[in-house]
Design brief:
The chain has about 425 residues and is an alpha+beta fold. It has a single domain, classed as D-amino Acid Aminotransferase, Chain A, domain 1, CATH 3.30.470. It is about 30% helix and about 25% strand. The strands form four sheets. The chain has a six-stranded antiparallel beta barrel. A six-stranded antiparallel beta sheet has the order 8-12-11-10-14-17. β6 and β7 form a beta hairpin. The longest helix is centred in the first third of the chain and has 27 residues.
């Protein structure tokens, strides 16, 4: 079945969702887009799609929830600005209607197609002049982001100040040049292929950061091998070189990206994959320490939950026969929002759910009430995953993915080291 369908078919189920860059993408090169607050989407790769549709039940709690497939089209205006719009796949109007679009802001971002492929904003209060000015501003931002990304590649660890006013999370969209660059590259690829196709399949996945007000995200490239069985000799050699020159070959894991909120300064710290590749094992350990440190104190209360989840994931993967998760990443996510401190001698009802730990060594007679957020550990990126159930694969592996399990065990050991050293 062709992934593309004509404009008249789209018009029948006319509503589409304007996609935006997913600002909490800290690693990788594939474009991840925001569908709504609870859902993201990314270009469909058949092997990854097959994984999500057939993955073992016991692995589902360690992967994003798969929510279906949409068709994504793009439109270019007279100034050369591009936007991406998601539509129900092959006229399946339930595909989008079953998803909660109530948090797509602003409402004017719902678009309507005509058979002439012109876009009409449903909110008639927005004039064409406003749209023109808005696109002009976005284009100016685009040029600035290009400059920022060049700086990002040279400055592998960056700090951005987050404005104190308003919701902290609402300020994120201006501070992640990595996600913006991935978005721009995707638009450019689609523009270059415009003569051949204008519709693409994207898969919908759970937005793992949606439950956090200020997501702190660590993207770890897992395993001692990154190239898939179908990699060209050039690609294979390139991936082997990257592994040998990084911590991947030594401990089976390396930093692929990081985003941490520094509560002490009100800044966001970003670390990119270029820096992650250069780290020694000791440097990797220091980067992990930095991920769990908010600029004021180490978030020690997170360690046990992370270790527990990683240990459970390791146990699950040890039982997976013939799976290989080449070039897959592991995300660790927690909320960087500062916890509310409550005096120990407060009224009893104020202390009902307090943790027994103090928030830091200098807290004195204070305890803290944890926020509703928890630490999350999830596997992502399965474009090069293989197992014996994929009938078309020429190579069939036996047993567990030892390289991935090796990386998990070393990750667990290093986090335990940080925990134990910080408590001394």
């Amino acid at each position: 079945m062709s992934p593309a369908f004509g404009a008249m078919e789209v018009e029948h189920y006319s509503k589409g969702v304007l996609l935006e860059p997913f600002v909490h993408q800290v690693g990788g090169h594939s474009c991840v887009l925001r569908f709504n607050d609870k859902t993201i989407c990314k270009p469909l790769i058949q092997r990854e799609h097959q994984f999500y549709e057939t993955l073992p039940t016991e692995m589902r709690k360690f992967t994003p929830q798969y929510e279906g497939v949409v068709s994504v089209s793009f439109e270019e205006d007279e100034d050369g600005n591009l936007c991406l719009i998601a539509y129900p796949l092959n006229g399946d109007h339930n595909n989008l209607e079953n998803l909660d679009n109530s948090d797509c802001e602003p409402k004017s971002k719902l678009l309507r197609w005509t058979n002439k492929k012109t876009m009409l904003l449903e909110n008639e209060k927005l004039s064409k002049e406003w749209v023109r000015q808005h696109r002009k501003e976005e284009k100016m931002k685009s040029h600035k982001l290009e400059e920022e990304f060049e700086w990002l590649k040279k400055s592998e660890v960056l700090y951005y100040t987050v404005e104190k006013k308003g919701n902290v999370s609402s300020q994120f969209k201006h501070h992640n040049p990595w996600s913006m660059k991935c978005h721009q590259q995707q638009l450019q690829r689609m523009k270059e292929n415009a003569k051949h196709r204008n519709q693409y399949k994207f898969i919908l996945l759970e937005n793992l950061t949606s439950r956090y007000e200020v997501p702190c995200v660590l993207d770890l490239k897992m395993g001692t091998r990154q190239h898939g069985d179908d990699a060209s000799e050039e690609k294979k050699a390139n991936q082997i070189r990257k592994c040998q020159q990084s911590t991947s070959a030594v401990i089976g894991v390396r930093v692929c990206g990081m985003q941490v909120y520094q509560a002490g300064t009100g800044q966001l710290m970003f670390m990119n994959k270029y820096h992650g590749r250069k780290l020694s094992v000791q440097g990797f350990k220091e980067a992990l320490y930095q991920f769990f440190h908010n600029g004021k104190y180490l978030r020690r209360e997170l360690f046990e939950s992370v270790i527990k989840k990683l240990t459970e994931l390791k146990s699950v993967l040890e039982k997976q026969e013939s799976y290989r998760f080449y070039s897959s990443s592991l995300l660790i996510i927690y909320d960087g929002k500062e916890r509310q401190e409550v005096a120990v001698d407060s009224d009893p009802e104020d202390l009902e759910d307090l943790s027994e730990e103090s928030s830091d060594e200098s807290a004195g007679a204070y305890a803290y009430k944890p926020t509703a957020s928890t630490v999350d550990v999830r596997m992502i990126d399965f474009a090069h995953t293989t197992c014996k159930y994929y009938g078309e694969d020429s190579v069939v592996h036996e047993g567990q993915d030892t390289g991935y399990v090796f990386g998990l065990q070393n990750l667990i050991d290093i986090i335990k080291e940080i925990r134990d050293e910080s408590s001394e």
